[in-house]
Amino acid sequence: MSYHENHCVVGYKLTKKGERFGEVKAVFEKIDSKLYPINKKEFFCHTEKVFITKDYEEIDNKYDDGELFFLEITGDSTSGECSYISIGGKATKLGSKDAIEVIKVKLPEVTYRKIDGFNYRPATKYIFIEDDFLYGPFEYEVEENLAGGFYITLKTLAITLINKGVPKGYICKVELSKDIFTETIINGSDRKFILNVDELNNLDIENYDYRNDDLIIQEGNEILKLIGREFSKNQIRELKNDVIKIQNINQFNKETINRFFPLFEKMEEWEKIAIDMIDKYLESEQGIEYIDNYIENNKESYFKSIKNKKEETDEAYIKVLKTEVNNLEERKGALSCDIEILANEFREKKDELANVKPDESLATISKEYKEIEEAVEKFKAEHNSLKDIVDLEKHKERILWSIEEKEKKETILKKSQEELEGQINVNKNKAIEKLLELRTYIDVIYTVKNDNKTTKDYSINVCNKPKDNKSQARKEYIEHIYNVFSNNGRDYKRDEIVNLIVSIQQSFITVLAGLPGVGKTSLVQHLGKALGLDNRLLNISVARGWTSQRDLLGYFNPLNNTFQSALTGLYEILQATSIEKNAQAPIYVLLDEANLSPIEHYWSNFMIMTDDENEKKLQTGRYGEDAEIAIPNALRFITTINYDNTTEALSPRLIDRSPIIKLRPERLTNPKDKKNINIDFLAYSNQDLSNLFDVSSKEKPDLTEEEMEYLNKIIDVLHDENPEYGQPIIVSQRKQLAIARYCHIARDNMIEVSKLRALDYAISQHILPLINGSGEQYGERLNKLLEKISKNSFNLSYPQLHRIIQIGKSEIDTFNFFV
Fold first, then answer.
1. How far apart are CA 194 and CA 100, in angstroms?
2. How far is CA 467 from CA 23, 91, 232, 326, 750, in A?
3. Exposed, middle or buried by CB within 10 Å (0-12, 13-18, 19+), for 458?
4. If exposure means fewest CB atoms within 10 Å of the residue's CB, which of 164, 296, 364, 625 is most exposed?
């Protein structure tokens, strides 16, 4: 057994070699239960690497880039640059007290706890913060930002990793000492670690209060339970004195009280703020829409409830009124009888008085008169009662009128109900359509599982392979496309088709630029038809306001633990074609009107894939086998852009990675002679097209002497740092390699007789798009560049540059390729 067999190191994943092999970079090794930097001079391989001979995908799927893990070495290697080997199954996660990374950054405020603009993910599960002191340990959460960096949010540990009594929510504060740190390099960045956390127990450790307001309120409430009595809000100040007097209040609890009561005094204010926020929300467009939706969804039961309640109230009121009317009718009848009796008595007495003889005694007359007078007084009293009866009659009329009005209102209410029910029936289809529109959002929230498994078949038949003679195969392929274009009345020259095919095949993304109406979109559609791509040409119309991958591809929905694909169809075609096992035909994705929104935002996850050496994989946010999608090598993005005031400018980063092809206005023609076209034409596989029209990114093909001479003159003018020429224009190594690869293929396939024809195209779409500056000095640099370009040999790029200069001078010395 070798020294390193069954030995354990700490490392991170490095590179993948094939399907199951790869390399791990070792940074520490475990000796007698402790971690030390690897000793490559005496005990370890000089490469500091371990070769994984089996199941590398377990490491690749389980660990993030730069994340540290244990790896048990299984033996020595007899070949290759790595001296030691292992397998993917021997990788395990670090323990809680193993290596912890130390990040040098200012400790965030306890109320914020977020580190902004960090440029890498920490390598360990826990971290320390190095400020004026060493603080920690912390748990943390990582969130990626739009700039390609990270946000790190700190969380205190429920139980400290250091074997000392640290209260909940507190962290350790330790004097800085170089002896406790170990430095190493991970993915090119200098990193610092504490390898053996238990050794911190030998240092002086101070407890540092890092509790947030939620924890303070929680612990404060626990302390208040010790008082044993209720209190009002007006007694808060007295309450604090009561708490302080409790016998078993320790220093920790006193610190909690000092932070808790200022928060407690604001609870009433917070309540008012919350109510105000709710009121403002209900007054906002979203709140009004929420109320309208609620009423619409519950209107049937709502109106039914109102109707029933109204009917019950009216019935009870009508019943009371009818009872009152009956009582009045009975009283009226009784009074009528009394009046009739009194009237008869009055007539009788009157007749008797008329018949009285003069000789009757005065006493008799007086008596009778008195009785009549009493009867009259009684009649007057009854007359007043009769007046009351008249008033009651009027009151009765008012009651009957009120009943009639109630009945009219009930009729109107019934009619409104019938109209509402009729309107509900009329809007039934609209309601169904609206439900269908909302179905996507409902599925996002309530669907238990949405695997986004595509059922559409994107595969197409491809020809077996091109002819052995590559030159002849290229010529026939180009001629086929030219004939298809010509027969469809599309005025494109053979050299323009060669340029288009070579540019698309050699670039992960190709930009077609031009003013509206020059035929950018139709060119791509006719090209896809000519190549026989059928449903492998996906047309995506970019909308204004796209900001991230979720608009183009979709997003991971944590509510149901699934990936919610966008409506563009890009996720479905990538999911289907990433698992194709046979020879793949090209996949063209057209981003139409791509700069209506900033491309570098919504296309950012694909930007890194423009470099061939980078792995082409997309993370979905899921776990297991669906955690990522492998991007097929056959995928190519083609974007169309307008450069007017309604669109976003292209970023320098995108221009450096893409050819920018300016299209002339398309002219429709009527071909005199129809070309013969192979109707059984089968698309070439992407691999065959790469063999015909591309060069490996690891190779730098040589330019001809004349091409190299002109290119060097151009680059010297652009890179000249003389301030008389303004800001230099840098042509990156990536651009220079793209130009060499392009010329190597295109020069022998272009028809027009010119040794510099291919370089002319390369300059127009790789170098001229870099022009973006202002000032007289910058204009002088462009004039000097124009002098280095031969008007006769560069009949494509020369007039473009001349136009840029002329328009720039008229625009107060502001020069830009996109004019």
1. 5
2. 39, 48, 92, 112, 20
3. buried
4. 625
Burial (Cβ within 10 Å: 0-12, 13-18, ≥19) of residue 368: middle
Residue 88 pLDDT? 92
Q: Give CA–CA dist 253/260, Å, rounded.
A: 10
Half-sphere exposure of 696 (CA within 13 A, CB side): 2
Distance (Å, whole) CA 493 – CA 486:
9
What's the average model confidence in pLDDT over 729-754? 90
CB 565 within 8 A of CB 538: no
- Report the distance separating Cα 729 and Cα 795, nearest Å: 22
Q: What is the DSSP string of 741-791?
A: HHHHHHTTT--SS-TTHHHHHHIIIIIGGG-EEESHHHHHHHHHHHHHS-T
The values of phi and psi at residue 459, to 5°, are -75, 145
User: Is-contact 200 164, C-beta < 8 A?
Assistant: no
**Residue 808 structure tokens:** 């720039």
Residue 675: name the closest of 507, 512, 480 by CA: 480
First to last CA, the chain: 71
Q: What is the length of the chain?
A: 819
Those residues whose C-beta lies under 8 Å from the C-beta of residue 719, and which sit 6 or more positions away, are: 728, 729, 730, 731
Structure tokens at 744: 């190597």
- Token readout for 71 is 């790896």
b vs e for 586-614, b when ≥16 Cβ sit within 10 Å of the residue's Cβ? bbbbbbbbbbbbbbbbbbbbbbebbeeee
Q: What element of type H or E holds 128?
A: strand 127-130
Q: Which amino acid is at 212?
A: N
- Angle of CA points 308, 312, 314, to nearest 5°: 115
Reported as a single tens digit per residue, the pLDDT across 762-794 is 999 999 999 999 999 999 999 999 999 988 889
pLDDT, mean of residues 626-651: 87
At 499, the amino acid letter reads N
Strands 100-104 and 127-130: parallel
pLDDT of 509-527, one tens digit each? Answer: 999 998 888 889 999 999 9
Asked whether the predicted pLDDT for residue 353 surpasses 70, the reply is: no
CA nearest neighbour of 499 among 638, 661, 699? 661
* Backbone region of residue 543 per phi and psi (left: phi > 0; alpha: psi in -120 to 50; beta: other values): beta
Q: How is residue 697 annotated by DSSP?
A: T
pLDDT tens digits for range 35-76: 989 876 666 778 888 999 999 999 999 999 899 999 999 888
Q: Please state, in angstroms and rounded to a whole number, the distance separating the CA atoms of residues 731 and 656.
A: 8
Q: Map tokens 């008033």 to a residue.
A: 391
Contact between 753 and 793 (Cβ < 8 Å): no
Give CA–CA dist 744/611, Å, rounded.
Answer: 19
Contact at 8 Å (CB) between 796 and 766?
Answer: no
Contact residues for 375 (Cβ-Cβ < 8 A; gap 6+)? 342, 345, 346, 349
Fill in the DSSP letter of residue 144. Answer: E
CA distance 375 to 368: 10
DSSP state of 208: E
DSSP single-letter state for residue 585 = P
The residues facing 511 across adjacent strands are 639, 660
Could you list the beta-strand ranges (E) of 358-398.
none
Residues 425, 353: Cα–Cα separation, whole Å: 84
Three-class SS state of 606: helix
